[in-house]
Write a structure and sequence with these properties.
The complex is a heterodimer of chains A (165) and B (479). Chain A has six helices and five strands; from the N terminus they run ααααβαββαββ. With 165 residues, chain A is α/β, with parallel strands linked by helices. In chain A, β4 and β5 form a beta hairpin. In chain B, 54% of the residues are buried. The chains are: A alpha/beta (165), B mainly alpha (479).
Chain lengths: 165, 479
């Protein structure tokens, strides 16, 4: 029944919409459509730099772009299979729908350090390696006491490597 | 080494496709080559990704195993192609003898558009070499984990990754990028995902233009290519290094191969139907949306085959797409059942789902978003939907196209997929506006090449209109 109804509808559609247009229109219309499509592609080319600005949001591109240099020392010292705790002065807001600025930074660090697994360090949790990623000068002794850590190296730019005690 | 590893995967796929000859004796020759290149690139990437994952699962993903495996595949497919070449030479129908001035003009415009878009995408890749948010928070992050030593590859689907990283997503793209990174020995340069993205967008274009040229003539194929490159929203996804363009490729490949099977008979027809199942399963290995597409495609094939009930076709062919999909389904099943954590779309109680289904405001919000995102597909003065509407109005529909089994199957697949996507929005556990704003453009991107293909497949071609009463050789063969 489904097939019969479908065939009937298709035949009916065929008879209504398949009347041939005049040959002149049939030749002109594809040409006009093609010119418009090419013009659109040209417009895309001309405006691509403006479109790219969307991807160059400093919160995203800048953060991901600078981590390679910031974290090169950490990658040399920490084994590739290590689990790395993460301490920051900007704790991420995990309840937000959109990633917050702090999550942009955390995910950029996590991407750069992979295949090391970077996880936010919870107080009381022990990790052999802990990365401190800070936006301003902090009291390192207080952080060492709070998380039972020992400073290994301060790489500058807010990047500090600790080991768990 | 990076280029070599990428090229080996693509060449293996192309050789295998050349062996199958999906175009059969359809011509022109350039279109058959485009279809083989397009299908081959996607097939090779999927094949290498699956092998890499299986080797990871059995703790044998070392250069000493993976590289000889790829070399063996390359040699085996080369030998088979060489033997097959000696056996028979295809006699293509529909050669270049009848190239009209319109086709020449459209070809020139498409080539010009291709260079413009390539230049634009290269600038995007240069300006945004890490891709967008999901690329370094999901796809490339997980690819990096897959390159790790020992069991660190299991971090790619660890529950310790947060919600934004979707550890339940399948691994075709991450697996392929990861294996090139791992065995190239050059670290994890962004060149690899950028080139992979370029291969997929080029494959989509090649497959769309090539397949339509084979089945409906050069004029419509070139117009479809031009409309694809005018789709700024689709182009915007190309260099994001997401899995949506690869998924759009696998949707398109499934439908194209299925429709191509209409033009074949005997063993090649059976192989093409099985190949369509394989491409649908590669979609399931690419993204969770592909897991929706695969059963839809199988059900549509069975339903339409049964309804059309051609002599001997249903009884002997119903299992072929399942057979083609089976190897990848096995891997996807293993990944989903034993390795991946639950996704973020499940876990809602039934009453909550039912309540959402009865909320009219949700349908209103979804409807508004569907229209708004569709309007963003291109510039208003050259909107792809507007250009297609003009073509439909003036070229009209080719009589009989809508009654072909494979065309109906393709349309049914796409329509059901669209409604399935809408259904997910209705019951999504996420905030609806947030979910729509972050995903609907990409869902359109996934379906867009298939939609273009199916619309142009049923249009009357300019060649047919310019010589009244004279159908092109391809159409003649099947009518």
């Amino acid at each position: 029944l489904w097939r019969a109804n479908y065939d009937k509808a298709a035949r009916s559609l065929d008879s209504r919409v398949t009347k041939s247009p005049s040959p002149k229109i049939a030749k002109a219309v594809p040409g006009i459509v093609a010119v418009l499509a090419l013009a659109s592609a040209f417009h895309y080319y001309l405006t691509v730099d403006k479109r790219n600005q969307f991807y160059q949001d400093p919160r995203m591109t800048y953060q991901i772009g600078i981590q390679s240099e910031r974290l090169s020392g950490v990658m040399e010292m920490v084994p590739a299979d290590a689990v790395v705790g993460y301490v920051t002065d900007l704790p991420p807001r995990l309840d937000a729908h959109w990633p917050t600025n702090d999550e942009f930074i955390f995910t950029a660090v996590r991407y750069e350090l992979a295949p090391r697994l970077v996880m936010p360090l919870v107080a009381g949790q022990m990790q052999t390696w802990v990365l401190g990623n800070f936006s301003k000068p902090v009291d390192l002794e207080q952080i060492e006491r709070q998380y039972h850590l020992k400073l290994v190296k301060d790489f500058g730019s807010g990047v500090i490597l600790f080991q768990g005690e | 080494m990076i280029l070599l590893l990428l090229a080996v995967a693509v060449v293996i796929g192309c050789l295998l496709m050349h062996l199958i000859e999906p175009a059969g004796k359809l011509g022109p020759r350039w279109a058959a080559i485009l279809v083989e290149l397009g299908l081959g690139a996607g097939f090779g990437i999927a094949l290498v990704s699956l092998i890499f994952f299986l080797l990871l699962a059995i703790h044998e993903a070392t250069a000493a195993v993976m590289l000889p495996t790829e070399v063996a595949l390359f040699l085996a497919s080369s030998i088979l192609v060489f033997v097959g070449r000696k056996r028979e030479t295809a006699n293509y129908q529909g050669g270049s003898a009848g190239i009209s001035w319109l086709s020449k003009m459209l070809s020139g415009m498409l080539v010009a558009g291709f260079f413009l878009v390539t230049a634009a995408l290269a600038r995007t890749a240069h300006a945004n070499r890490f891709g967008s948010w999901d690329s370094w928070n999901i796809w490339n992050l997980r690819a990096k984990y897959l390159t790790g030593l020992g069991d660190t590859w299991t971090r790619a689907f660890s529950t310790q990754l947060n919600y934004f990283s979707h550890p339940d997503y399948p691994l075709l793209l991450s697996g392929f990028v990861g294996q090139v990174w791992k065995f190239s020995g050059r670290g994890t340069p962004t060149l690899v995902p950028i080139l992979t993205a370029a291969v997929f967008i080029a494959s989509v274009a090649a497959l769309l233009v090539g397949a339509l040229a084979l089945m409906r003539g050069s004029g419509l194929a070139l117009l479809a290519g031009l409309i694809l490159i005018s789709s700024s929203s689709f182009l915007g996804q190309a260099m994001s290094q997401y899995a949506d363009v690869p998924l759009s490729f696998y949707y398109l490949a499934t439908i194209v191969v299925l429709v191509l099977s209409e033009y074949s008979d005997g063993a090649r027809k059976s192989i093409l139907i099985a190949l369509a199942g394989a491409f649908a399963s590669f979609g399931a290995w690419t993204k969770n949306e592909g897991l929706v597409f695969l059963p839809i495609a199988l059900i549509c094939f069975l339903l339409v085959s049964w309804s059309w009930r051609r002599a001997t076709s249903f009884g002997t062919k119903w299992f072929l797409p399942i057979l083609g999909a089976a190897p990848t389904l096995f891997v996807v099943g293993y990944f989903k059942l034993f390795l991946a954590p639950p996704g973020d779309m499940g876990g809602q109680p039934l009453p909550q789902i039912l309540h959402k289904m009865t909320e009219l405001s949700r349908y209103w919000i979804i409807g508004k978003s569907l229209i708004a995102r569709a309007l963003e597909l291109g510039e208003w003065w050259a909107h792809p939907l507007l250009l297609m509407a003009i073509l439909v109005c003036f070229l009209r529909i080719q009589p009989g196209q809508l009654q072909k089994q494979e065309v109906v199957t393709g349309w049914l697949c796409l329509i059901l997929l669209f409604f399935a996507y809408c259904g997910v929005y209705v019951i999504t556990p996420l905030d609806l506006r947030f979910h729509l704003s972050t995903s609907l453009t990409r869902l359109y991107c996934q379906m867009w090449p298939s939609f273009l293909f199916l619309v142009f497949l049923i249009l009357r071609s300019p060649e047919e209109l310019s010589c009244p009463g004279g159908l092109n050789p391809q159409t003649k063969e099947i009518s």
